[in-house]
Specification:
The chain is an alpha+beta fold. It is 28% helix and 23% strand.
Length: 529
């Protein structure tokens, strides 16, 4: 079986037909260690037990078309399934699809679905559900935050109950990775058309069934005994403990109240990772933090002001003070060093460049600085922690910032959605790890994530060029151009890329952390007694 990784998976040349074989063959390769990031099993799988996971934020909905946050996606990926999935190194492989075919010109993909897949309510999953899912995401008024992932799809055709064909308007390098995104999860057509609300009680075909959600407390799941991967998942149940207070989260993992978290507070990493009975894992992944100056509000509508803010920030102080060394400062664009499209641009110094920032403010006619506000989500501890560091950095160049904190979901409703802020911050958990995912939603005009309201025809053209180029080399060159332009226009201010800090009970076996920070691989793990 040929994976043609240099051809299709990273959006490289798609000038020839590619066919992936069955999921069974893939599983055999994974078990033998032939797939990157998928080693041989650590021990014989054990059925049973409850994995209790700790998270700091509440989700913002469970409908794949409406859940905008990373925490929503962590739930969605357990309950639903996608045509493709990602291995720990973010390489896509067939999931609901047993195999697929790509046309020579890269404008048509045909997916052949597994047989016998059922939704949690017992309905069969068919090509009609796949078509309905993507037509729903593509609808003009869908409100889907990740429209960029479906914008090149011109038609979805249910050829027969087990075959679905996608037609594209142009070659799309990340298309297969888009098919693995939680937002691309297949939903039950008949149920949704009947008026059922997936946002409050999701029903999918994934490894776990949703049981209940108590805000700020707990989300419960039970094993889907009819899951299409025979014998999986191995846990009886999952519990997502929602622990906003970072000290309480640390205490919970140390005491055994929870037995897994990939949100260990950096300040507690040394203590937690050295606790007997716990195993600690660090990985530089896709959790990058950035400031969002509101590009439509004066004086942040001036790129020189945004550049001044960018140079005023002491990123090394954020690495030390907020992440206790468990992060790396960005020195240029936001595509990280481990990614194949890394641009290697030296633009920022790790520490603040006060003189540069003051000079830029003077060029903007603001030698005396200005007053502004920084609005942070109180449920995101790292952002709350870095706020006073940023405030002090800005004060050093004459920008007088008042810090405001807002709780989730009020933050989504009053700040993020309507863009009512001067400066805010966010972190990006890249769900795909294709370079397009790091930049498109944050820099392109009119995307659901572009809450800073920036828009540039030149930027959009470069983003499209990078997405549709048919070789890896051409894509990388276009991303270098895009990163250079992003620093010139500075619609967002890159800060740091934090490490994924995971601690779990040493009884957890065969867990493979993902660079995306997501947890789809939990279905392959088990607890020893």
């Amino acid at each position: 079986m040929s994976f043609q990784r240099d051809t299709i998976f990273s959006g490289h040349a798609i000038a020839r037909r590619t066919v992936l074989k069955s999921g069974a063959a893939l599983a055999a390769l994974a078990a033998s260690g032939a797939l990157s990031g998928m080693g041989a099993l650590a021990s014989e799988p054990v059925k049973g037990g409850i994995l209790k996971l700790g998270f700091s934020a509440d989700p913002a909905g469970f409908d794949p078309a409406r859940g905008p946050s990373g925490m929503s996606h962590v739930v969605i990926e357990q309950v639903y399934s996608t045509l493709m999935s990602l291995d720990p190194d973010a390489i896509p492989y067939p999931d609901l699809a047993e195999k697929y075919e790509a046309s020579d010109d890269g404008l048509e993909y045909t997916f052949h679905l597994r047989g016998g897949v059922k939704f949690h309510n017992g309905d069969d999953l068919t090509a009609d559900d796949v078509k309905f899912t993507f037509d729903r995401l593509r609808a003009p008024n869908s409100g889907y935050s990740y429209q960029s992932q479906v914008e090149t799809i011109t038609d979805v055709i249910a050829v027969d109950p087990k075959t679905v064909k996608f037609k594209l308007s142009k070659p799309t390098g990340p298309f297969l990775t888009y098919m693995a995104f939680p937002g691309s999860s297949i939903v039950p057509k008949k149920l949704v058309e009947s008026g059922y609300d997936l946002n409050s009680k999701p029903i999918g075909s994934g490894p776990f069934k949703f049981v209940s959600y108590e805000p700020r407390s707990m989300i419960k799941f039970v094993r889907n005994d009819a899951f299409y991967e025979a014998g999986k998942p191995y846990f009886d149940a999952l519990e997502f403990h929602l622990i906003a207070d970072v000290t309480a989260l640390t205490n919970a993992i140390i005491s055994g109240t929870i037995n897994f978290s990939n949100e260990i507070p950096p300040k507690d990493w040394q203590t937690v990772s050295s606790t007997p009975g716990l195993k600690g894992l660090t990985l530089e992944g896709s959790r990058y933090y950035w400031l969002l100056p509101n590009n439509t509000e004066k004086p942040m509508d001036n790129p020189k002001v945004r550049q001044a803010i960018a140079h005023a920030i002491d990123r090394s102080a954020i690495v030390t003070g907020t992440f206790y060394g468990q992060a790396v400062p960005f020195k240029g664009g936001v595509i990280p060093q481990w990614n194949w499209a890394y641009a290697d641009i030296d633009y920022f110094s790790p520490t603040a460049n006060v003189e540069k920032a003051k000079a830029l403010l003077a060029e903007a006619g603001l030698s005396n600085g200005f007053d502004t506000t920084i609005t942070m989500a109180s449920s995101f501890p790292a952002m709350v922690s870095m706020a006073p560091i940023i405030q002090a950095n800005l004060a050093a160049v004459g920008i007088r910032a008042t810090i405001k904190t807002v709780e989730i979901p009020r933050y989504w409703d009053e700040v993020w959605g309507p863009s009512k802020f001067d400066i805010t911050a966010m972190y990006w958990v890249s769900p795909l790890a294709d370079p397009d995912d790091f930049v498109y939603n944050n820099y392109a005009c009119h995307t659901g994530i572009n809450v800073q309201k920036s828009c540039s025809d030149e930027m959009d053209a470069l983003l499209l060029k990078a997405k549709t180029a048919t070789t890896k080399e051409a894509r990388k060159a276009a991303y270098h151009e895009q990163q250079m332009l992003s620093l010139e226009q500075m619609p967002i201010v890159p800060l740091v890329n934090s490490f994924i800090l995971t601690a779990h009970t040493d009884k957890l076996q065969n867990y493979k952390p993902m660079r995306t920070g997501f947890l789809k691989t939990l279905k392959d793990s088990w607890l020893t007694t």
